[in-house]
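user:
I keep going back and forth on a fold encoding question. Separate attempts, laid side by side, tell us more than any discussion would. Would you put together a sequence-and-structure record for a protein of your own picking? Write it directly below this note and I will take it from there.

assistant:
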Amino acid sequence: MEKKADSKRKIRVLVTDDSPLMRQFLSGVIEATPEFSLVGVAANGEEALKLIPELKPDVVTMDIAMPVLDGLEATQQIMARHPTPILIVSASHAKEATGLAFKALAYGALDVFDKSFATAAEGREVKIAEFIARIKIVSRVRVIRHPFAKAGTAPIRMAVPEKPASSERAPAGMLVAIAASTGGPHALQEILRELPADFPSSILIVQHISEGFDVGLADWLGHQCSIAVKLASDGLTIQAGTAYLAPTGSHLRIGKNRKLALTDEPAQDGYKPSANLLFESVARVYRERALGVILSGMGGDGVVGLREMKRAGARIFAQDEATSIVFGMPKAAVEAGIVDSVLALDRIAAAILESAARD
């Protein structure tokens, strides 16, 4: 679902934010980047919706909390009427806005980025570089009319079975390890919500996401699913029926005693957390009693670790190109010859359940 890049053509960006200062800051970053062209600014979702057919941007940056038409509703309508790559640029510290940001991903937005980099006292240039890179990534995605984005409809609310009273259950046999990047939050939602509360295994997840959104992602997924979803913490003993999300800025591994380990070592190939490091630890500890799953995402993180899992006897699943927002990570694993099954997104949960039942 990626477009062919045109090195000579500038990426056309429409900035949407109700704050004049934020619009000015983002516009300045766009205008200072040679590969970008600022084609317009909008103070709310309604203005963006009116400008898109005229300006035909390659990327829309979208705030969430705005008057007139907020970012969630705007994303719904844009993806229903004028499908365009959308990067949510919102505050990660505001719980309500974070929840809405992840709903926007379910409606077709491609990624989220923490807007606090505009006022950061330290590391501002690094965050600006990350923001620029994120726009470049989403600009290459060929978006379609999103099935959930029906213009004029209310946000979808799914009835999730009540979670059973908390009781510690040791995982029975298989461990599931999942990695994803761009397009991952929606894919994770689709998979995890199909798993029952009594799922017999533990799930470890590396999701590349902007710093500050990890807590919100775990909370959002937890509200969509019957299984428990938690942010991983150092020394925590894993339990069955629970998914553990690696926090941004830390590497996640599993030890022989079923305890999670978080480390602050340098990024691996630019990634922290690193899917490779997680998969390698799973290969060492669980060997053939493991299942590796590689989902939508840019780049090749995870291939090295999946190769180790494969050598140890684990099964490997990859999301297929048709249902991946970005086929980079699954494609790299497929081309490495280490994938047992390439599956459409709506088939992955069933395949995981079948593997768990067989183990």
Observations:
- Confidence is low (pLDDT under 50) at residues 148-161.
- DSSP finds eleven helices and 14 strands in the chain.
